[in-house]
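Consider this record:
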Amino acid sequence: MTQLAPTTHIPRWQFWIDRGGTFTDIVAKRPDGSLTTHKLLSENPEQYKDAAVAGIRHLLGLKPGEPVTPALVECVKMGTTVATNALLERKGEPTLLVTTRGFRDALRIAYQNRPRLFDRHIQLPELLYTEVIEACERVGAHGDVLQALDEPSLRGDLLAAYGRGLRSVAIVFMHGYRYTQHEQAAQRIAKEVGFTQISTSHETSPMMKFVSRGDTTVVDAYLSPILRRYVEQVASEMPGVKLFFMQSSGGLTDAGTFQGKDAILSGPAGGIVGMARTAGLAGHEKVIGFDMGGTSTDVSHYAGAFEREFETHVAGVRMRAPMMSIHTVAAGGGSVLAYDGARFRVGPESAGANPGPVSYRRGGPLAVTDANVMVGKVQPRYFPSVFGPAANETLDADAVRARFEEIAAQTQRKPEEVAEGFIQIAVQQMANAIKKISVARGYDVTRYTLQCFGGAGGQHACLVADALGMSRVFVHPLAGVLSAYGMGLADQTVIREQAVEMPLAAASLPLIAERLDALGSAAQAELERQQVSANPVQVRHNVHVRYEGTDSALVVPFGDMASIQAAFESAYRQRFAFLMVGKGLVVEAVSVEAMIAGDAPAEPRLPVHPHRKHPQRETVKMHSGSAWHDAALVVREDLHPGDVIPGPAIIAEKNTTTVVEPGWSARLTDLDHLVLDRVTARKVQYAAGTTVDPVLLEVFNNLFMNIAEQMGLQLQNTAYSVNIKERLDFSCALFDATGNLIANAPHMPVHLGSMGESIKTVIRENAGKMHPGDVYMLNDPYHGGTHLPDVTVITPVYVAEGKEPTFYVGSRGHHADIGGTTPGSMPPFSTRIDEEGVQINNVKLVDRGIFLEEEVRSLLTTGGGTTPYPSRNPQQNLADLRAQIAANEKGVQELSKMVDQFGLDVVQAYMRHVQDNAEESVRRVITQLKDGQFTLKLDNGAQISVSVKVNVAERSAVIDFAGTSAQQTNNFNAPRAVCMAAVLYVFRTLVDDDIPLNAGCLKPLQVIIPQGSMLNPNPPASVVAGNVETSTCITNALFGALGVMAGSQPTMNNFTFGNARHQYYETIAGGSGAGAVLDAEGRVERGFNGTSVVQTHMTNSRLTDPEVLEFRFPVMLDSYAIREGSGGSGRWHGGSGGVRRVRFLEAMTASILSNGRLNPAFGMAGGQPGRPGANRVLRANGQVEELGHIGAALMEPGDVFEIATPGGGGFGECVTS
């Protein structure tokens, strides 16, 4: 054997590969250390079986049949989108889910929220598992075995599933992340039965949260077999060659240990590693990664350390596995361009690689690449000639011009202006995506370098930088294949994590250290088993810390108490602006990262040549900034280090095109890197003009929305109350100078139309008395509020030395308690507003920048004369109010930036234009509607009556609530603002398009609500159920009158329980109604079924995860399942309701506030009604107590509260064949 030893030192080839969806990129390191690249189509079955292997064979110059051997190749490091594509296309392995009895539907119901707020047809992501087995077993939140696993019956069920052909299984038991004995037993049985892929939740993701851990485990079982087959296929063609794969976390792992859950971001993660390593080499410390491909753009943030997310959402699946923090937006070179008569639209559909954009000569649609051809930024002669039937023709510029001329004729502008307008919108979308990962997290993006890679990035880099106020762009020579390059530079890593859930205290530190050491040695052993490089193993220990009672943990290095606390506080302040004083810290989990450092990029420094006139092949015409320019066309290979290319210019290279815009200049550094700098200050004049520019209209639609979303993120991150932070029961919005809604981040529809009324109250009552730095608050239902727990905070915005406010921003959040007769301020039996809590009408919260803490505390503590039942926890209210002030401040800053960029007159003009655009969209829909009338009965004997009269000539409608019951002595009265919100929501859902929800939607509608009725009550009527229950009934009644949709569950099933120590509130989902889409004449074009157990209409709040619920409260969730068959039948059937059973472990008061127990969700057009709901208490002694639609019960340990929620109504008569 000895004579073979030297071969290990002979330099051999290395291959670094990124197998993408369209192309496979290869960077090869030759034995002499120099690099070469190769690009080929990922799928080309006529030519080769696998692109990666074919590329390696090509570069090695092997003849057919010659093997790839370890003598030639030292190692192959690759990233692959095989798993991601299988997930997106739902083409994974058929998978069986084994879970705790009572939880068969837990992953389907998940957190109840619907993905798109205004879709009447609610479409949830397709499930990844095909069958479920419920095992008889149960462990409590703190490890007590309540029911031992019934092994014989599980074995029988598994044998039967195996007999039906299933081979892949995911095992997820309640609290299995920590108490693993039952999952281990189930795993053993599955192995004995013969399952070939077994994923257990405690190994896949040992973290608390049943839903996301369960999803991750199912993903792992679903994708791992697909990955395994791919890995084996590649390995079989290169026997003995060391093969490594890139994981989502940015570290390489041995092919044998590559798992489904770690493969989702395998490709893009390589790009981030390549970006970070090359930026470090070039001395750019802070970079924003901008990776633009054909179908989408990935953006990322890097400031010296990789950022990882431990909980993300991919393709409709919640993932809890360490992943690189990457934000993806559906704007790429292939994004489709369209003009809808009012706005220019870009994406989200993509032309793909086949047929591809118009210019690809396959009859495809207009796309972003075509727009760049039109304006001369992509020159067909300098782009690969791979088009046409013989794959040897250039891009088709004539076809592109013809298509742009069609839109130019419709819009009375020049074709190149049309193309430039579309580019501007795509740039804005990408800039907004970058804001979400930078500005929204407290980073000042203007100090960063924009690092651009991917095929289409260079065409837009200067424009994206300008949109963000960035002044430097960096393009690496391997930018077109940077992901593949990153594979070669990445560290080898093993990340292990485990939940601990202990307070951060001196006593718990040794226990935490013990866990970390055990994890660390396991991770280190794993790495040493895979050992390939001679570098030493380093192990990093981290703790995931959060404030008690909150949900957002931050990852900080482990150390002593002081250092952990300091690191946490500095990270928290960076992201959330201020700390939660007085709250204890909890260590939620620990994680270790064992790593072997990758090789530093070996890039030689080249001699810099003296200044010369840069070489150019020719001068071409390029349209930019609304004018044609003569641009130098430069080929990258002609350049020497030291060359400077002033814009406008186009730099063409093998894998990408870089555009140097006017006002920018490019230089080639001694590392052969291209650096672009802005050399003249940006001067952009936007004209307010009398006509509406369809490009700016879309840009402002997106910008206004983006500001509202950033405010929402700030509020969610900094709030104290679980309702705001986790259930997302809040809204943020922008208003114009008169208080009209401009844009609203879509969270809670019931807040949407009603915040404007609050703003108008503040404007009216403080006219001439407001100052910059003032902030007001309000919750009074008789002045634009909804119900008392929803507190609105309003900040006037002053810009450009104005004396009067130019805009207003507002944020409304549901506080945990505002007083009233019951904890949580949702009393089921209140009859007067003063029994529901502290009333706040137009109270100053901040006076010229000074927080009026004492005055506000005293109002909350005493009730300020409005109620004998003041707030139970004023400290928490103050913390939430501070968070709302901070969210508003974010809005103020972003609006000021917008005014600086576009000018005040333009911003104000487009505030009007976006309202006009929404108004026009609603008017267009009104013409398809018919007059209608509907009366809906409530369980308490009241009724809501509404008629809709359409005026087709004026394209307007009158909505009249005459015939509605007078105001009630109970609390089902809905303030006028809630009724308006319901009207706004219904008409917005009829517009089948992404228009922003703003005051313009209401302009075509005249709404008549009789004063003194239950929808427009006089004080002191109580209103707490109006906001939740009555609002839902108003939307159903309106859909009934319009005839487009059957009833969804007419309730939110508000369930509260508590005692002196604990208070909890949740709304429980039911079935949505079936419905129809009408054509222009008002005939049924197509129908849709309702969806089971999903939040509908006026709410979209999240449900607390079952494990978190049991960990924090002394209750046990026995089950939450779909109530099969409870949806109404019809040609299209309604969605089913659910059954939720909560078992109490301590004495508590539980109350239910609901409807739809006597009067179910109605059927429409011949469809049947859904089944009504029911509320029952199942006593430990076997007695059953039926409760009415509102009720309360004293629960003793062992008692179960059972809530069955109503199903949705059916639409259309049953067609029996």
